[in-house]
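note to self — DONT lose this again. spent like an hour looking for the file last time. sequence + predicted structure for the chain T wanted, 240 res
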Amino acid sequence: MPDRLGRWRRLARALLPSSCALCAAACDGAVCRPCHAQFVARTARCPRCANPVGDADAGRECAACLAERPAYDATLAGADYRAPLDQLVLQLKFGGKLALAPWFAEVLRDAVIEERFLLPQVLCPVPLGPARLVERGFNQALEMARPLARHLGIALCERLAVRALDTRAQSGVAPDQRRRNIRGAFAVAPAALVQVRGRHVGVVDDVMTSGHTLGELAATLKRAGAARVSNFVFARTPPH
């Protein structure tokens, strides 16, 4: 059976060749190995918010988290949100290139292994509001969470959290208004409470910028009884 499956895969690659989303070279996946090695580099980060820190501070929380601790307990970021990877995020979110989502999940899987990150008991994608979901046709966080759950052997609860308010997109809100914009936006589905109470919940999203969205969702999960909340984000926007 494995040999037969391998032959089918080789035939599929020959009939349906793919190219790297970054350099257009022929490759088996969404991004070729040289581009992966060049643009996905592990750096020292704050273990709580995943902002970059100096090598001497690796493993220590940054000053911002010490001054005002977010509701989430940890964040794992696959890469920085900068060129050219930022374009891949935009292609997934606004261009509907869903083939990129499994690669994002692979980057996170590798980061989990490299950092020996504490695995949660259940994964929860950041939910989209109904209007945005209808407009886009998919939730990019869910498209990432599905393969990530398989890679890590963790249960995925697709509707563990729901949007209680259909807020404006954070990208269109002034930075000093983002916390207020997202306040009260989430709720835990009553049927999913058993998945939350006393458990370690992993939250999956494509990009983390200010952290207010993930902070609000983590606070909602904590109020519902979550013992720990960890974020899994493909890209982290470096502080300006």
